[in-house]
Automatic annotation (TrEMBL):
Residues 23-211 form the Electron transfer flavoprotein alpha/beta-subunit N-terminal domain. InterPro entries: ET-Flavoprotein_bsu_CS, ETF_a/b_N, ETF_b, ETF_beta_N, Rossmann-like_a/b/a_fold. Pfam families: ETF. This is Electron transfer flavoprotein subunit beta. Its cofactor is AMP. Heterodimer of an alpha and a beta subunit. Belongs to the ETF beta-subunit/FixA family.
Length: 249
């Protein structure tokens, strides 16, 4: 069984991003970039399924600029067997990514696609759902447990107020939530081994996919600055302030 794992190169989660002065977007020049954390969880899960003998091949894929090769090498250091870069300099929106992934699924014929539930840069939370719709495959989003048996997969999902368990027939699309697993530490020997693994490059044109953006960003602004907190001497003052200043009780 082959698993495809899409991984996105995003601004590292530790970086405090700044809005560009012309408000056209976020400044990512000279900023540390990393694999989207939910995608690391997806690569880890696919790797664990391979280690259990359920999966025979894990293929990582990234859509974007040539720098995404770095992200793919990290995926292979975690455990992916090989990688595919769908290379373009066009700014990719979720629908374009979903179409690119659909084209690669048609070519690679995996039985499972495991994506992150969302990319922490745009917080879109759309690509997995769009991919499942384009493929007409069952989907289970926000997975906190995945068990494959035979031609079906049982997925526990985190929903408001509890857990939901779904059984899907393969092939299927799964998106990962934070508690699915804790990705392993990438060791130096595995980074070295990953350099020797195969990384193929394809373009949207070669896959016959139009990636032209459909949405236009009008303006990006910083959130309003928060004013400093104050210490109150006692509960009575706190209640008074909440009632008469903040007017929240
Ligand atoms: P989003 O819908 O943008 O929040 O992204 C959800 C998931 O789709 C991510 O966690 C990735 O697994 C996948 N994804 C989104 N954009 C890309 C990309 N450019 N390349 C590879 N995978 C992506």
């Amino acid at each position: 069984m082959k698993v495809l794992v899409p991984v996105k190169r995003v601004v590292d989660y530790n970086v405090k991003v700044r809005v560009k002065s012309d408000q056209t977007g976020v400044d990512i020049a000279n900023v540390k970039m990393s694999m989207n954390p939910f995608d690391e969880i997806a690569v880890e899960e696919a790797t664990r399924l391979k280690e259990k003998g359920v999966v025979t091949e894990v293929v990582a894929v990234s859509c974007g600029t040539a720098q995404c090769q770095e992200t793919l090498r990290t995926a292979m250091a975690i455990g992916a067997d090989r990688a595919v870069l769908l290379q373009t300099d066009v700014e990719l929106q979720p629908l374009a990514v979903a179409k690119l992934l659909k084209a690669l699924v048609d070519k690679e014929q995996p039985q499972l696609v495991v994506l992150g539930k969302q990319a922490i840069d745009d917080d879109a939370n759309q690509t997995g759902q769009m991919l499942a719709a384009l493929l007409d495959w069952p989907q289970a989003t926000f997975a906190s447990k995945v068990e494959v048996s035979g031609d079906s997969v049982t997925v526990t999902r985190e929903v408001d107020g509890g857990l939901e368990t779904l059984s899907l027939k393969l092939p299927a699309v799964i998106t990962t939530d934070l508690r699915l697993n804790e990705p392993r530490y990438v060791t130096l020997p595995n980074i070295m081994k990953a350099k020797k693994k195969t990384l193929d490059t394809l373009t949207p044109e070669e896959l016959g996919v139009d990636v032209t953006p459909r949405l236009k960003t009008l303006k990006v602004t910083e959130p309003p600055a928060r004013s400093a907190g104050i210490m109150v001497p006692d509960v009575a003052t706190l209640v008074d302030k909440l009632k008469n200043e903040a007017k929240v009780v």
